[in-house]
Amino acid sequence: MNRHTAAQAEPVTTARGASRLPQLRGRPMVTDGGMETGLIFHHGVDLPHFAVFPLLETAVGRALVEDYYHGYAEIARRAGAGLLLESGATYRASPGWGARLGYGPADLARVKPPRSRCCPGCGSATPPPSPT
Q1: Which one in 68, 82, 84, 98 has a CA-CA gap of 20 to 30 Å to 120?
Q2: Which of 95, 103, 24 is nearest to 57 (CA)?
Q3: Are the C-beta atoms of residues 55 and 45 closer than 8 Å to each other?
Q4: What residue segments make up the domains of the chain, in order of their start?
């Protein structure tokens, strides 16, 4: 496998502040992938239209999403690497996809938490307990 670090790659853009991004300074990074597939095949979760955001409406669903993110946070901690997380839980929480699932604009606003709430404690040494 041909391995390149982010420091060796040519930047595609030089947006203001981009040089401060850790992934552009050669720091090893861990990122997540496959949230929907993992929830379906490892946890037996039904995801109509491959949408995860309806899970955020229940304590059990939120715990599944948080556990997914915490798993990657733990990998990054053990590796001494940075962590980049996608917003997979809410990427389908848009008007078009929401309508297919019976969610109007007010419903979508309710289920789209601030990003910091998708994975509380991911930056800390110990993940917080899951909600009850």
Answers
A1: 98
A2: 103
A3: yes
A4: 28-118
